[in-house]
Amino acid sequence: MTLFLLRMRPAVAASALLLAAVVAIAIIGPALAPYNPYEIQHLKVNQPSSPQHWLGTDEFGRDLLSRLLIGIRPTVMVAMGATVIAAAFGTFLGIVGAYGPRLVSFGIMRSVDILLAFPPILLALLAVGFWQSGVVSLMAVIGVVYTPHFARIAQSSTLQVMQQEYVQAERSMGASPLRIVFRAILPNILSPLMVQATLTIAAAILLESGLSFLGLGIVPPEPSWGQMIGTARSYLSINPMYLVWPALCLAMTVLAINIIGDYLRDLLDPRLRQ
Amino acid sequence: MNALAGILAFVVQKLATALTQLFVVATLVFSIMYIMPGDPVLLLLGSESSPSPETIAAMRSRLGLDQPVLTQYVSWLTDVVRFDLGNSILGGYSVGQVVADNLPRTLELGLAAIVIASLIGVPVGIAAALNRGTLVDTALTSMTTIGISVPVYILGALLIILFSLQLGWLPSSGYMDIGRNAPEHFRRLVLPAFTLGFGLAASIARMTRSSMLEILNRDFIRALRAKGMSERRIIWQHALRNASIPVVTIIGLQLGNLMGGTVLVEAMFNWPGLSTLLVDAVSSRDYPVVQGSVLAIAALFIFINLAVELIYGLLDPRIRRRRT
């Protein structure tokens, strides 16, 4: 493992470590929190960093470090869940779009084109307002919003793979469409989909935190980074560090995922490996 | 004659696509209430603990929800075509009027962001390309990576902390009518426009850098050098002009992201544009306003895309001939 990390570029290795830490904290975060993250203390409102509260307190006197630590979980859950949903549905739609009957594929790909034309946050806003807020619905909404991106990539990769001799060989030997899809096509379109998945995780984190920032995502008192940034916005003049900490965590995480995404793209695309 | 017919066919086809998109969006916006789980009437009356059946029925008929779905759909579409977007449930005001008030503010913010992004992005890209492989290049390129990754609400907050709280140079948020106080209007535009434009500036810088590098390797540049033309003239008059085509393309492609960014930037800076209208309406479940503002944003978006595609098509015959 160490050797593997050492052989990567330093920025990539650092990003991998950071992301491993983020995921670990998402799982065990509540155990690490020094204080109860929901405990309101009116006498300790909006305090700066101190030996007791390393990162200070928020507008209800709650410990910021504890809230940051447990705020990772909803963000990570939403991002991962949304990516899985988007990848599953998108890949399915994309393969059908390339392989299915003409009329069906025309319908799918035109809808995908229209949806792709709109900024994700706009689509998410439309759905979120009329839905119960919370982790599960955010997952579903963000997952649906990013489905067309996967469908577009799966479709174009499938079309490419279908030209290859081995697919034609399978077909001429009388393989069933299901066998062709699972044995010949899917394994060969995985790498662009994996790159898309890393990009989507980063985008989903940003979208979730954007919605939470607007007050339309994770519901208080449950914290999430975006929501903390949104709340801290009102206390900028009193306690600017309240905003800086979650902003820093969020920016670092997204940057790390993007760096890994770039690395994966280079790694999986032999043309760029030089 | 043939060329003219080709151009005409291209324009007609693009117009038809845009109108189809508008129609699909209008249908989608109409169907929000039906696709979404939950009764919009109950959502609206949600503040009352248990509304009586009479209240629900009254609200339903006030909103026209007691009509058959198809009738509602047709009347919604005809209203939209006549620019009648209905009235706000909560405020009672005309949605069309509010949209018309807020639209120019969003446009102004977006336009200012594009101008700022170009003013920063192009020189940075050129500087990075001319200093390729040096420390300057590495520093500038890393800055663009950060610029693309940093979310607008984080950048906005940092700018507010620096320029309004620490230095006190610019107001932290709010809007001023240009007719009432023009200098203050522009002072309040600076931070939101810069925040919105920063990511675009980074994209422009990257594209300018790679495009300049490619052009500088071309034969005609070598020929100009061999002819003894000054390096400054080669760069500013010949290389930049040829390198600018992909840069203009990236600006066109990034307009969508820019529109998405306005949602957060307007909220961050209390800028009373279309996105603020939408977010407020979503929070208060005032769905005629949601429908109206989404439709307006989508229409704006479709027309910008249409304009970009038409301009490219008219400039470059190859795009026109491509089957779309």
Automatic annotation (TrEMBL), chain A:
Residue intervals passing through the bilayer: 76-100, 112-131, 137-154, 180-207, 243-264
Classification via SUPFAM superfamilies: MetI-like
CDD domains: TM_PBP2 (cd06261)
Matching InterPro entries: BP-dependent_transpt_permease, MetI-like, MetI-like_sf
Top-level division of the source organism's lineage: Bacteria
Pfam families: BPD_transp_1
Keywords for the protein's UniProt record, in alphabetical order: Cell membrane, Membrane, Transmembrane, Transmembrane helix, Transport
Major location category of this protein: membrane
Record localization: Cell membrane
Gene Ontology terms: biological process: transmembrane transport
PROSITE patterns per the UniProt record, alphabetical: ABC_TM1
Domain ABC transmembrane type-1 span(s) in chain numbering: 72-261
UniProt feature coiled coil, ranges: none
Membrane topology category: Multi-pass membrane protein
Any one annotated GO CC term: plasma membrane
Family: Belongs to the binding-protein-dependent transport system permease family.
Protein's recorded name: ABC transporter permease
Organism in which the protein naturally occurs: Arsenicitalea aurantiaca
